[in-house]
Amino acid sequence: MDRRHLLKLMALTGSLVIPVGRQAWAAVGDDSAATRRKLVVVMLRGAVDGLNVVAPYGDANYARLRPIIGLARPGQDGGALDLDGYFGLHPALASLQPLWEQKKLAFIHASGSPDATRSHFDAQDYLESGTPGRKSTQDGWLNRLLTVLPGAASPTRAISIGPLMPRILAGRAPATNLAAGAAGTKQSILDRPQIGSAFDQMYQGSDKFASAYQDGRDAHKEVMTASMQDEMQAANGGAPLPNGFPNDAAHLAKLMRNDPKIQIAFVALGGWDTHAYQGNGKGQLANRLMPLGQGLATLAQGLGPMFDDTTIVVMSEFGRTARQNGNGGTDHGHGNVMWVLGGGVAGGKVYGDWQGLGEAQLHEGRDLPVTTDFRSVLAQVSERHLRLSDQQLAQVFPAMPAASPGLNFLRS
């Protein structure tokens, strides 16, 4: 069995993914000041219906296009939660209303990728590579971000919670992947002293692989320590909720509090492809939005004072059709809504160039248009929150579009 195969086995038998070759781990450093400002990205795979997340109930076309699945007006049964007299929040996201009132939550409507694909695979790839329309990009924009941030590289500077290392973190910078739910802190085969010692001895004589192996072991121990220090005292209290995300969000908040080197986190959630029986204030979409909102609220609360130095971005590959289909659902669309949460957010406002839902305003006569490129949103977070220079920004987002006027959702 060669060492490459053993590294893959280590990844499969534990919760840690260790890239090799182009993605070999870099040296571990300790520079908590450089990692003080945090970024969490939540990706909703499957194309969430932004027009029901932040519903333009003030546009008469909204109810006309969605007679069954459209949200009722605020104050009515199952109605939207009023945001500004025109837009309303889905009632299943009521747990986020306090953040809106505290002006720590904002939305950018009619945002998304300029590429018009309706393919989930392609659109997600573009969202994660940060280069819409270009499939040749090898790395993800979060990985490129890691390469320009100040401070020493560390395997736990960026973590992902999910079954696999995501495309968005692919590249030469180190990153760590944790399983979701209880498996995220489950001991691996290498945590058994005899087996771990045998692997340690095997890699001692190989300069080529020893660094990658040891950094991976150190990152795993670091994450396990941050995760487990309270777990033994409350073993029965950590059972995940059926929907999972609130528990994972609490776990992530604890990891970030306990390990100051964690600066970037990524979580992907599926189940948003609502072609049929989507529902309105209640139903399939509501059942997915409720734990999402609860998880985000849990994360914000769990971070405590650290939330003031954290920006959370929620995004999805594209939106859904403005008009409901014959199955009580929506089909693949174009423009969507992005969410931003955090202490530095100029919240309590829906941003973006909103043009309405009239037939003449719809993209290809069926979709919300994209009037704000998703990279403009991410670039503002990178520049104002993470303090990237123009040169660094160009490395993270090559062929960056011009800044969208009036898009000032972060305090300087």
Automatic annotation (TrEMBL):
Residues annotated as signal peptide: 1-26
InterPro entries to which the protein is assigned, alphabetical: DUF1501
Coiled-coil blocks: none
Record Pfam families: DUF1501 (PF07394)
Keyword set includes Signal: yes
UniProt keyword list: Signal
Record protein name field: Tat (Twin-arginine translocation) pathway signal sequence domain protein
Species this protein is from: Collimonas pratensis
